[in-house]
Amino acid sequence: MLTTHSLIFQYPYGNPFAFPDLQCKAGESLLILGESGSGKTTLLHLLSGILTPQSGDLEVDGTKINQLKNTERDVFRGKQMGMVFQKHFFMEGLSVFENLKAAQKLSGSLSDISHLEQLMEKLGISHLSKKKPYKLSQGEQQRFSIARALANKPSYLLADEPTSSLDDRNCEKFIELIRLPLTEKPVSWIIATHDQRLKKYFSNIYEL
Prior knowledge:
alpha/beta; 6 helices; 10 strands
């Protein structure tokens, strides 16, 4: 379970963000809604341990992330968190499959080729394994981004504005994707967005 209590974060010379207390159970999906500038991306970065709050607590499966040292947070994030960024940040010189293997290696996880192959098959991108990321369509890149985020078998998958550039049909396809049983254990999706279309698909919603 992921829970937060009284999280406050402030950038230098900026106004502080005071975030509502969140709770996300294992296998549950959480939608964080807010307009531009409301702190959605900042909150995702706090939840993943990329940023550290000035005050408050963040606990993930019994571990208080904000009390870990920087290196400990990096290790914890690599094993427990998957990130689907608004900009994908692929390694453009590597093929799709090489990117996935690199994601496992960089996090310190053991190589699991079978897991990667299963992910690609379930996401419908097995035929793209040898292609470079820049040759993929927008929809293919999104599926590839989800596969990369799941490469290390995380418990939580955090996505920043995943549907902001999608039309209604592709938005529905994305929802279908996140409902697929992509891994052996349940994955908790935490999505931050301004896209009001997603409200009807979630029961656990926080608005900033």
